[in-house]
């Protein structure tokens, strides 16, 4: 029989993490520990973000308290399939970050409680990732670009939409001058207005942009379909996928909008079983994709990276470089080196137990 404990934790950013929807100085997460009477355990992470996640973050503590009671007397999962089924049974898809956290805890439990969520040969992993450049003034963004290039990244992702457009163009233009081979991704987080977006995308296309995530706010299907069809830059859907939970609705969205890429975040989409369905549907429709973290601690990031590694034929750069943005992240063997996500030989983890 299972028991559940919950431990809240506040992650402090090293800088003001700014997107077109506002800035964050810190964020709250909850660590979940599931365990049985024999001492077997597994730990997961619940990491919603206010105003971005589908669930109301203020409701999460009460939901987790209710979950403590719901887990009692449940049989412990013995396989990956049972872990997914139990998480789905316990948590509605209206609370994707909670289901993700429970999935990770159950999968860790099934695999011995040593942070091996999907595989144990972690020292062999070498996953290409993009270097993320946060919004800020022109100098701040250029400083970040220089740091990422110095660190060996060959794929740079820039948040856009908060500065005046001309300043952002200057940053991108200066970046493109460095190398024709550099992969440049953009993420607008829905910042562009529908009456100007195609003009801005045309100006941005001069700099050989790999893709742009979510150029306009979601829930504007006719406008997004037009943009996907006419944009001179390939369109990647991100926020557009949030809350699309049924298989039928997912197929309808892909067939209607016809995006070039999907950006998949397990915390936002209700865990790995849900993201796997998105991947299967994307590949059926000839749509490329990559996995991105949602600013989780190293605990959640570890699970997401292991999941991404299950798809070695996908050569896209994943978004897994967010572990270094916190002053007080959980100590882990995660390494970011020369634009790759990997693991140190040591498997030392900080204390995250509830």
Description of the structure:
The protein has 354 residues and is an alpha/beta fold. The protein folds into two domains: 2-110, Enolase-like, N-terminal domain (Enolase-like, domain 1, 2-Layer Sandwich); 122-343, Alpha-Beta Barrel (TIM Barrel). Helices cover 34% and strands 21% of the residues. It is globular. The relative contact order is 0.15.
What's the helix and strand layout?
Elements: E1 2-19, E2 22-36, E3 41-46, H1 60-71, H2 80-90, H3 96-110, E4 127-128, E5 131-133, H4 138-150, E6 155-159, H5 165-178, E7 183-187, H6 197-204, E8 211-213, H7 221-230, E9 235-237, H8 247-257, E10 261-264, H9 266-269, H10 272-284, E11 288-291, H11 298-308, E12 334-337, E13 340-343
Parallel strand pairs: 5-6, 6-7, 7-8, 8-9, 9-10, 10-11
Antiparallel strand pairs: 1-2, 2-3, 4-13, 12-13
Shape: globular
Q: If you consult CATH, what is the topology of the largest domain?
A: TIM Barrel
CATH architecture of the largest domain: Alpha-Beta Barrel
Biggest sheet descriptor: 7 strands, parallel
- What proportion of the residues form beta strands (DSSP E)? 15-25%
**Using only CA atoms, what is the Rg?**
20 Å
Number of separate helices: 11
Name the CATH homologous superfamily of the largest domain: Enolase-like C-terminal domain
Instruction: Give the CA-CA distance, first to last residue.
Output: 18 Å
Helix content: 25-40%
Low-pLDDT runs: none
CATH C-level label of the largest domain: Alpha Beta
The tally of beta strands, per DSSP, is 13
Mean pLDDT: 94
Order of helices and strands: EEEHHHEEHEHEHEHEHEHHEHEE
Q: What topology, given as strand order, has the largest sheet?
A: 5-6-7-8-9-10-11
Task: Please indicate the count of domains.
Answer: 2
Structural class designation: alpha/beta
């Amino acid at each position: 029989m299972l028991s559940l404990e919950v431990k809240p934790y506040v992650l402090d950013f090293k800088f003001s993490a700014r997107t077109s929807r506002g800035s964050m100085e810190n964020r709250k997460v909850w660590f979940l520990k599931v365990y049985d009477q024999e001492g077997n355990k597994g730990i997961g992470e619940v990491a919603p973000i206010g105003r971005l996640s589908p669930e109301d973050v203020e409701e999460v503590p009460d939901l987790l308290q209710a979950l403590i009671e719901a887990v009692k007397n449940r049989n412990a999962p013995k396989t990956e399939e049972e872990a997914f089924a139990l998480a789905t049974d316990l948590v509605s898809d209206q609370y994707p970050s909670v289901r993700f956290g429970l999935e990770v805890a159950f999968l860790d439990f099934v695999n011995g409680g040593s942070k091996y969520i999907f595989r144990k040969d972690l020292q062999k992993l070498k996953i290409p990732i993009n270097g993320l450049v946060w919004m800020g003034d022109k100098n701040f963004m250029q400083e970040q670009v220089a740091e990422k290039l110095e660190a060996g990244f060959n794929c740079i992702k820039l948040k856009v939409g908060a500065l005046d457009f001309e300043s952002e163009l200057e940053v991108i233009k200066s970046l493109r001058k460095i190398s024709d081979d550099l992969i440049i991704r953009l993420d607008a987080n829905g910042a562009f207005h529908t009456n100007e977006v195609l003009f801005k995308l045309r100006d941005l296309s001069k700099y050989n942009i790999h893709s742009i995530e979510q150029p306009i706010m979601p829930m504007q299907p006719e406008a997004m379909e037009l943009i996907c069809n006419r944009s001179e830059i390939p369109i990647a859907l991100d926020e557009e996928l949030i809350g699309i939970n049924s298989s039928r609705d997912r197929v309808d969205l892909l067939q209607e909008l016809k995006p070039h890429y999907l950006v998949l975040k397990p915390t936002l989409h209700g865990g790995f079983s849900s993201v796997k369905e998105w991947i299967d549907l994307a590949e059926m429709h000839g749509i490329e994709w990559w996995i991105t973290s949602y600013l989780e601690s190293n605990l959640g990031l570890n699970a997401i990276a292991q999941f991404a590694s299950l798809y070695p034929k996908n050569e896209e750069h994943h978004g897994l470089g967010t572990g270094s943005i916190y002053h007080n992240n959980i100590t882990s063997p995660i390494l970011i080196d020369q634009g790759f996500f990997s693991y140190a030989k040591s498997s030392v983890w900080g204390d995250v137990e509830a």
